[in-house]
Amino acid sequence: MTGNGRDPESTSEDSRLASLQKRLGQVEAAEVKRNAVKAGPESDANYRLGNRVLAELLGGLIGGALFGWLIDRFAGTSPWGFLGMLFVGVVVAFRNIIRLSSTPRK
Questions:
Q1: Per-residue pLDDT tens for 35-82?
Q2: pLDDT confidence band for 33 (50 / 70 / 90)
Q3: Percent of the chain with pLDDT over 90
Q4: pLDDT greater than 60 at residue 8
Q5: DSSP character string of the chain
Q6: Domain shared by 35 and 49, yes or no
Q7: I want to staple 81 with a disulfide (CB 3.0 to 4.6 A). Which of 1, 40, 41, 71 is the partner?
Q8: Are residues 66 and 101 part of one domain?
Q9: Total count of domains within the chain
Q10: Looking at the structure, do residues 75 and 27 belong to the same domain, yes or no?
């Protein structure tokens, strides 16, 4: 012990702790900044693209099924109009999804 009642080893531990806390704060700030950039406009664009793909797929299926049902209803060709137009709706949906995914994003 020294004259001031403090152990010299505890003083060095305090300075090391202060240094460690300072570095930890810098790393945490850098991590927050990095995560804020990651969750920015790019993830928003990906979310919109995913919603667009889902809408194309559902629209093609539902639209084809509806037109097929209407053809069957008025022409009496059940179930061939429904199945044929459902197939056409799936093809159109996949064509739109492929076209959507192949265009470069902004």
A1: 776 655 667 888 898 999 999 999 999 999 999 999 999 999 889 999
A2: confident
A3: 52
A4: no
A5: --TTS--HHHHHHHHHHHHHHHHHHHHHHHHHHHHHHHTSHHHHHHHHHHHHHHHHHHHHHHHHHHHHHHHHHHH--TTHHHHHHHHHHHHHHHHHHHHHHHSPP-
A6: no
A7: 71
A8: yes
A9: 2
A10: no
